[in-house]
Amino acid sequence: MGLNSSSIGRKVAMALSGLFLVFFLGQHFVINFSSVVSPETFNSWSHFMGTNGLVQFLLQPILIIGVVFHFVMGVILEVQNRKARAVNYVSFKGNTNSTWASRNMIISGLVILAFLGLHFYDFWVPEMVYKYIESNPEAPTRYYEELVHKFESHVRVILYVLAFILLMFHLWHGFASSFQSIGFNNKYSKALIGFTKFYAIFIPLGFIFIALYHHFNQILP
Ligand code: HEM
Predict the structure, then answer these.
(1) Atom of ligand 1 at shortest distance to CA of 128?
(2) Which pLDDT value is given to residue 92?
(3) Cα–Cα nearest to 162, from 108, 126, 219
(4) Is residue 94 a part of any domain in this protein?
(5) What's the rounded Cα separation, in Å, for the pair 34 and 40?
(6) Is 129 a domain residue?
(7) Which of 1, 77, 78, 168 is least crowded, fewest Cβ atoms below 10 Å from its Cβ?
(8) What is the number of the ligand 1 atom nearest to the C-alpha of 50?
(9) What is the pLDDT of residue 80?
């Protein structure tokens, strides 16, 4: 069963949307990590991102479309692969040369999707309502308090941390395999794969640190 052009096209589109989201995660981590280092910096960066026209009306819609596209295509490819596997059951040696992370991308993906549902409810929707529904006056120093307040609840922190652990598995396989899917295979591949594995651990661990830092910073005397 050869891979036809449309399924190759889907895999490349999936890989490119994945690489875009990996880039978003990096900048999202830097902005939110600033809340641990300097609340003033976090407020000024959040205010810039929150009031800059290019970010709000071009990059943010592209991001949301990228997130939706990546998940929809993820489900389409999973269904396609399961159909192919059912046909080739006899010769499929599934578990022998694949990791848990690679066999369960749909599981880690769906957990991240569930996280984004909670996360949008926590941060993005209130932000959109504050700015575009209630059209409140700009308050450049409000972001830090709003962020910290969200990490008071230990239930939210536990859910976030669990999601970040699944994000680690998703990135561990997804980031490296995206480069394979777009055919990036040359003398730099080994170093690049090494970087993708470092990133897959460092960024989610960083998000876990941010959540735990703001939580314990509030509950410990
Ligand atoms: C402790 C970790 C995190 C913190 C503190 C955090 C904080 C925030 C905040 C404050 C916003 C609202 C930004 C705005 O629209 O003004 C936001 C939006 C968003 N976050 Fe996070 N985030 C975290 C982790 C993540 C992770 C792991 C993902 C992806 C898997 C993610 C994806 C998004 C997306 C897609 C948006 C909406 C787009 C945007 O407005 O930037 N976040 N987050």
Answers:
(1) 15
(2) 52
(3) 108
(4) no
(5) 9
(6) yes
(7) 1
(8) 16
(9) 87
Which protein residues are within 6 Å of ligand 1, measured from CB?
A: 25, 28, 32, 50, 60, 63, 67, 112, 119, 123-124, 127, 147, 167, 207, 210-211
Ligand 1 centroid vs 1 CA: distance in angstroms?
Answer: 41
CB atoms within 10 A of CB 169: 22
Instruction: Give the three-state DSSP class for 141.
Output: coil
Give the closest residue (by CA) to ligand 1 atom 26: 25
Please state the pTM of the whole predicted model: 0.90
The residue whose CA is least distant from atom 30 of ligand 1 is: 112
Which residue stretches of the chain have pLDDT < 70?
1-4, 87-97
Q: How many domains, in total, are found in the chain?
A: 1
> Rounded to an integer, what distance in angstroms lies between the CA atom of residue 32 and that of residue 211?
10
Q: Is residue 40 part of a domain?
A: yes
How many Å from the N-terminal Cα to the C-terminal Cα in the chain?
Answer: 63
Mean of per-residue pLDDT scores for the chain: 91
Residue 78 Cα, ligand 1 centroid: separation in angstroms?
A: 26
State which residues form the domain around 153: 3-85+103-219
92 belongs to a structural domain: no
Quote the pLDDT of residue 1.
Answer: 47
